[in-house]
Amino acid sequence: MRPAKLIFAFLLLVSFGLNVVLYVRFRSRRPILTVNGESISKKDIDDYLEQKDPNVKAVMVERVLVKGDAIKKNLWPNDQEVLEEFNHLKEGDWQFARRVNNNPWMEAEEKSAIQYDMARQRLRAKDVQVDDAMMKEEYEINKAAYDTPDKARVHLCLVMRKTPVGDVKAMMEKSAPQLSTAEITRAFPGQVVFLGDKEVFTVNRAFGTKSAGAQLEALFTMKPGEVKEMPAEELRSLGAQTILARMIEVIPGKVADLNEPKTKEKLHLATALRRSIPWQQQLSQLWNAANFWSEDPADKQVIEGMFFPDRAAAATPKQ
Question: Which residues pair with 153 in a beta bridge?
Answer without folding.
Answer: 202, 249
